[in-house]
């Protein structure tokens, strides 16, 4: 045992603290155990003395020395002065033998902390309003208007025949037996319950026809005959909101979901929005109101190296334009928005220097065109509200590096 030169007799009061406080005169004779270092300290006359580990730590169980009092938290002999003050165990004479194993608790082994409340597993996200399916055949022939009951026509029994094509095929041969050569035909894709526009229909004779498609499809064909004298009529197929669905009515097998609320969408006609076979939508200058856009990009109209008069910037090819000046250049803008509509574009210009003449009607802050970088990149922005008669420009970045 290590003798600190001070004779101490129990019982002792040991304070357990999270950290060791700064020594003060009032700490003389104070015994402290700190949980952050798991050491025992004694307040000497001028500082703290680290008593941990002196023989007796882990409790020498001293003769009758309380056998470590079952060891407070295994502080490995917390205060096990084991003769702090020289008892040096004295085999437990006076029984305390360093309180002999205030050691037993084997460090409480931590109360093993609660494993965390396992988190409320979060709402799986509101599954999103499922959006209108594709402008639903604007100008898609409005479902062939339903033919207003198909006029019924006097005494013809079986005015309608429904043909089913179970396996996909590019050509359907239909024997309708309506005894009418020129009948009305409407095709439904049963895979998604959407109307399809065939590529071609051949009315072979009064009881047979052939339907051709650009791709193999399965579904049903509704064959409706016309006749010569009116009766009540078959109450008219109120049109599948765009038979066949190129959105402009020109596609062969473009599909459109039916529009379920006829009162909330008008027919845009031939000038309405269109969709190409690759899925591109052309709004044809129609209003797209209150959209929320996310993860979108803009087309870049890359002019390359330019010079001459005029060098045309086609507004329809993209609102971000790049160009490298290769000589004297006069810019002009073609196909801008009509007057009353705002249009703008960004020009990323390389090596502009003194070789650029701007569009007629270009206005600058303070009335003076900016100085361009002879060897480097400038970024400029322009906008118009009068159909391109006036372009208001600004130098956004000079000599961007």
Question: How would you describe what is shown here?
Answer:
The protein is an all-beta fold and 401 residues long. Helices cover 0% and strands 34% of the residues. It has strands spanning 14-17, 31-34, 39-43, 48-50, 55-58, 160-175, 184-189, 194-196, 200-205, 208-224, 274-275, 281-282, 300-314, 320-334, 339-350, 356-357, 362-363, 377-386, 391-397. Strands 13, 14, 15, 16, 17, 18 and 19 form a 7-stranded mixed sheet that branches. Strands 6, 7, 8, 9 and 10 form a 5-stranded antiparallel sheet that branches. A 4-stranded mixed sheet has the order 1-2-3-4, with no helix packed on it. β9 and β10 form a beta hairpin.
Q: Which key features would you list for this structure?
A:
401 residues; mainly beta; 5-stranded antiparallel sheet; 34% strand
Beta-strand portion reads 25-35%
Q: Alpha-carbon distance between the termini?
A: 74 Å
Q: How many strand elements?
A: 19
Estimate percent helicity: under 10%
| Overall shape | flat
Structural class: mainly beta
Note the run of SSEs as H and E. Answer: EEEEEEEEEEEEEEEEEEE
Low-confidence stretches: 54-158, 228-267
Output the number of helix runs: 0
Instruction: Provide the gyration radius in Å.
Output: 45 Å
The biggest beta sheet, please? Answer: 7 strands, mixed
Provide the residue-averaged pLDDT: 73
């Amino acid at each position: 045992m290590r003798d600190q030169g001070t004779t101490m007799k129990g019982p002792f009061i040991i304070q357990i603290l999270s950290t060791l406080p700064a020594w003060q005169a009032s700490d003389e004779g104070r015994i402290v155990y700190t949980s952050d270092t798991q050491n025992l300290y004694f307040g000497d006359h001028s500082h703290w003395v680290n008593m941990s580990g002196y023989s007796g730590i882990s409790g020498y169980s001293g003769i009758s020395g309380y056998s470590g009092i079952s060891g407070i938290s295994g502080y490995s002999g917390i205060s096990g002065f084991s003769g702090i003050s020289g008892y040096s165990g004295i085999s437990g004479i006076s029984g305390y033998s360093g309180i002999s194993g205030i050691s037993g608790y084997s460090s409480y082994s931590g109360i093993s902390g609660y494993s965390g409340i396992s988190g409320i597993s979060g709402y799986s996200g509101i599954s999103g309003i499922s959006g209108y399916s594709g402008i639903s055949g604007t100008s898609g022939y409005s479902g062939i208007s339903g033919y207003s009951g198909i006029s019924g026509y006097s005494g013809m029994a079986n005015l309608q025949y429904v043909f089913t094509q179970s396996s996909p095929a590019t050509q359907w041969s239909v024997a309708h037996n309506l005894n009418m050569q020129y009948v009305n035909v409407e095709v439904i894709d049963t895979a998604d319950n959407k109307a399809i526009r065939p590529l071609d229909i051949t009315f072979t004779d009064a009881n047979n026809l052939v339907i051709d498609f650009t791709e193999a499809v399965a579904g049903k064909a509704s064959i409706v005959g016309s006749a010569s004298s009116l009766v009540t009529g078959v109450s008219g197929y109120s049109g599948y909101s765009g038979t066949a669905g190129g959105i402009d009515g020109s596609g062969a097998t473009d599909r459109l979901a039916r529009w379920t609320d006829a009162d909330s969408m008008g027919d845009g006609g031939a000038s309405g929005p269109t969709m190409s076979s690759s899925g591109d939508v052309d709004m044809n200058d129609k209003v797209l109101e209150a959209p929320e856009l996310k993860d979108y990009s803009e087309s870049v109209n890359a002019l390359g190296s330019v010079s001459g008069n005029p060098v045309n910037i086609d507004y329809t090819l993209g609102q971000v334009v790049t160009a490298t000046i290769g000589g004297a250049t006069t810019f002009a803008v073609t196909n801008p928005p009509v007057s009353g509509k705002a249009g703008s574009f960004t020009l990323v210009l390389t090596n502009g220097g003194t070789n650029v003449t701007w569009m007629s009607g270009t206005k600058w802050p303070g009335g003076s065109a900016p100085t361009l970088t002879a060897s480097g990149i400038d970024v400029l922005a322009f906008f118009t509200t009068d159909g391109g008669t006036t372009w208001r420009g600004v130098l956004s970045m000079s000599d961007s590096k």
